[in-house]
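How it folds
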Amino acid sequence: CTSIPSLDLTGFDTSAVTNMSKMFYRCRSLTSLDLSSFDTSSVMNMNYMFYLCQHLTSLNLTGLNTSSVTDMSGIFYDTSLTSLDLSSFDTSVVKSMYRMFRSSTSLTSLDLSSFDTSVVKSMAEMFYSCSRLTYLDLTGFDTSAVTDMTYMFNNCSSLTSLILGPNFFKTPTVTSVDFSSSAQWPGGTVVTSPVPNSYDRATAGLSAMTLKLSVSTKVALTDEQKAAITAKGYTIA
């Protein structure tokens, strides 16, 4: 429905809906959407729900109940949203966050510190080409179930603050994470996040993980910091 400029969905009874996959797919002309009246307590699939809503600048998700959602793949893929408040999202049963924010090039900051990712298996391309994103808080991320983080941060060329929690590198399956696109990373968190807070893979008996960093990020690390992160089971590349 590429030409629909607005939608009034306040009268929708969605209490029995289990699948909202691609619900607003390619609604290119929509500029705002209010889903605060939606009952989504039974919804299990929200993949690509707002995919290619390329003029959407306002999205009210405050009423969304995501406690049953297992698939959020591509839900905000290629939108024009400049900000998103997802603090009310319950992600405790989500298994896929594949391409969740991919190519959302208008986003400048994102606080996902409240996300429960303990059962998520795929984070591949999650922030791929979020080229204007400067601030990203993933403090609460637990990647112990993750099997794929391919291109998770690729082309995030504006990141100056990337905040990772102590369980971000907990995955026993993934052995390499690429941060090399984030040339601006030394602007604040290269010291405060991956070095002192990184998961101790060596003590946990996990295989060594390669961290691919930009040249500027590697230059910002002192020899002591490099030694500290290497001792925890990481290789800097």
